[in-house]
Prior knowledge:
Layout: H1 6-26, H2 29-46, H3 54-76, H4 94-101, H5 103-112, H6 117-128, H7 133-140, H8 144-159, H9 166-185, H10 188-194, E1 195-203, E2 215-217, H11 219-228, H12 230-233, E3 236-241, E4 244-249, E5 257-264, E6 267-274, H13 277-280, E7 285-286
Parallel strand pairs: 1-6
Antiparallel strand pairs: 1-2, 3-4, 3-7, 4-5, 5-6
Helix pairs in contact: 1-2, 1-3, 2-3, 3-6, 3-7, 4-5, 6-8, 7-8, 9-10
Amino acid sequence: MDGQNGPALRFEAERGRLRALAHRMLGSPDEAEDAVQEAWLRLDRTGDDGIDNLPGWLTTVVSRICLDQLRSRATRREDPYGQEPPEQAASDAPEDQAVLADSVGTALLVVLDRLGPAERVAFVLHDLFGVPFDHIALVLDRSRPAAKKLASRARLKVRGTPAVPGAELDRHRRLVEAFLAAARGGDLVGLLEVLAPDVVRRADPAALPPGVPVELRGARAVAEGTTALRERSRSAAVALVDGDVGLVVAPHGRLLFAITVTVEDGRITAYDVVAEPGRLRPVELGVLDAVGVWRG
Length: 296
């Protein structure tokens, strides 16, 4: 790309935003980069003469590229639940690292994967990037009311439906966050502090290495079993799982396991690792901390 070229310079000024946009739409840094590069090729072929609003034009082009990819992915039914996604090259882009490192961002990518293509594009454009519905309607080739309805429907799915009162949800969340922090750190003492003495851990065989029992009983056994699988916790994020606070394990933002957590008297009394596709698909997921993560 010629650094002295006017369109190239203007495009480079938009690259970070476009990559972040495509990443939220596609859930993959590599696919996002491909979409952005395709947008550059289209701009390079057509030139920017007559484009009064280049950022808006690029937003439309990248969004339509992503929409086509999402529709193609849905047709091919890629990345079935419960299967490890292919390895992806690590991205050094700050916006990509922020999503992967942030629990809310990871959970959001997982839930976005469950939206229809048009819902996902409408939600990302409006709720995450503040694009007005008139523009979204042009991207989706829908009316403005239809675009607004798609975003609203997606928003409800992303937020999920808590099955417990807000104060109880907050208490459960703090406990699950403490559990996850201890699991990531291999902190046996920290795990014992949040586990009930008679806690039970159950897991689908697909979630476990060969030879590991599907059920563990007692705080010591469960804590030791949890620390033994600490690498998996690096891809975990706190989320709303079947209406209560639980965890999703999502390498590269693609759902691998969902973990339901049972809490009684301020301790975790059970957790169930759901990995079999037939059990994983019906699990209802949502994103905690809606306020401040997206526009309402």
